[in-house]
Amino acid sequence: MTPPATAGTIGSAHLPLRDVVATEIRRLILDGTLGQGERLIREALRMLEAEGFVDTAARRGCFVATLSAEQAADLFEVRLAVEPLGARLAARAAGQFPADCRDHIARMKEILAEAQDKPAQLDLDRLSELHTELHSLVFEMTGNSYLIAIAIPMVKRGQWLLRQSAPLRTPSAWSQHHGLISAIEAGDADLAEAVARHHVLTVRSDLLNTAPPED
């Protein structure tokens, strides 16, 4: 039996984009996911634009954003500043309020176990979702609303890059997260910051050194 999530998209590769979008929205309305009177499209596009997935041009409409090698390098510069800070603050929170952070840490361990158990059996969409959730949980643990507002869109943008280069199937893509989670759980802010920085540097080296040259 075809799963509901994919039933409305069979053969979508042969349809114009407008028909694919219309089919999906129709399915969400029919199954009640979208309620009566709920606003559509424009708000979603604004959210995607804020996250860097969509570019809007005056009198021309909205387009899927490009992600050049220069933009990828810029993204990693921001990650190098933001992710170590997030790890430091998450570890500090775990050290000061361990009960409040217990669920976040437990969920991060569950994500890592699922991703590393049999990564070849998970599709890239699921692996990408898990990776995004894990890093988002780190920032949520900080309790810093300003940092969260900056970091979550950055995480999602970074997952676009990871999704295109597909490194998430390899165990090494996940192994460094063990040290990150352990440092955060132990409340060791210095170590958590150092591990996060090393992780970003490693991912940047792996992705940017293997990226194909631009036309």
What does this structure look like?
The protein is mainly alpha-helical and 215 residues long. The chain has 2 domains: 4-64, no CATH class; 69-210, Four Helix Bundle (Hemerythrin (Met), subunit A) (Up-down Bundle), CATH 1.20.120.530. The protein is built from 9 helices and 2 strands, in the order H-H-H-E-E-H-H-H-H-H-H. The chain has helices at 4-7, 17-30, 42-50, 69-96, 98-117, 124-142, 145-165, 172-185, 189-210, and strands at residues 54-57, 61-64. It has a two-stranded antiparallel ribbon. A hairpin with a 3-residue loop joins strand 1 and strand 2 (61-64). Helix 4 (69-96) runs antiparallel to helix 9 (189-210) and helix 5 (98-117) packs antiparallel against helix 8. The longest helix has 28 residues, at 69-96. The radius of gyration is 19 Å and the shape is globular. The relative contact order is 0.13.
Quickly count the domains: 2
Span between N and C termini?
43 Å
The helix tally amounts to: 9
Described by strand count, sense and barrel closure, the largest sheet is: 2 strands, antiparallel
CATH topology of the largest domain: Four Helix Bundle (Hemerythrin (Met), subunit A)
